[in-house]
Amino acid sequence: MIVYMKIRENVPIAELTTMRMGGFARYVVEITTVNDIVEAYKFADEKGLPTYILGGGSNTIGRDEGFDGVILLNKLRGIDVLGDDGETVTVQAMAGEKLDDLAAFTVERDLTGIEAMSAIPGTVGAAPVQNVGAYGQDIGAVLVSVEAFDTELRDFITLSVKELGFRYRRSILNSDMKKRFFVTAVTVRLRRGEIAGELYRSLQAYLDENGIADRRPATIRDAVIAVRAGKIPNPMKIASSGSFFKNVSVDEAEIDGLRAKFPNIPIYKIGESWEVAAGWLIEQTGLKGQLLHGMRVSDKAALILINESAGNYADLAAARAAIVAAVRDKFGLELEQEPEEI
Ligand code: EPU
Asked: Is the whole-model pTM more than 0.85?
């Protein structure tokens, strides 16, 4: 078999992921055309090795033992306007594009729907997998369909928004059908004009403080970039994986009990589920800003862990255990890690 793909051997996972830790990956294959996907899975099959799909590496953490398999590095590029009915515009982006570049593309065209997801470090392909969202918007709300390679059927297929089953930080792509599909492109339909509805609290506060009244996509994008810069370390510069913990889902029946015990507890309704702000829970334990086993609990946003001097994954695991235990002891709530592991 002639393989034209770029294949590298024994690559440190630390170099491919923004948390910058972990052992070696046996093979890394760069996917620049959809045909490379077919070839890459053939290559893995021939070697009898498992695969792992990686985009920007901002939501994947490497373990010390490394990965004895094939990493498929998604570098599929291109953003196109597919349709325009005057009110809405349909845009398709290849999965290896940066989500922020797609946000910029749509904002330039005065489209609303993903401008609040500006400055998220991940790729377009990762967005539907974990229903990426920020400041009141999530990809599930504007998504039309996802193009993907089905590793079971060995064919290219289309998944509709309905089939993807979006919930808070969840879709079939990271739950029931985890690892079955390689996302190649994402299609969104966006509306012309201003962001609708009530704004996310910290975003509204920023606009108020700066006397900004308009709600154009470009204004919202600039505001989000400014708010994020003040709170969320840029993982390209500071080793982290963004939010290290998910907000904690609770049943509606638990809410009154929690509020009675902890009157200020921030609980939000996201879609159909109720979420307790994990950053607040961690801050209340007194761990915000602390250094645990080389991992820093960010002093600006407590659900972000920064790899300041952790020697290895075991250090991260020890820091995680300490934080999870502190929140469990104080609130009886169980924190869950947000990034994937390889
Ligand atoms: N809070 C604290 N202390 C903290 C951090 C937050 O008390 O140290 C409180 C805030 O005051 C607020 C609440 O917790 O009442 C929520 O905080 P924030 O608005 O900053 O958002 P978040 O729930 O902590 C989520 C996402 C972020 C996303 C922001 C903005 C998750 C796991 N995280 O954080 O996503 O940028 O909302 O929409 O859903 C990411 O996934 O990597 C990420 C950065």
From this structure: yes
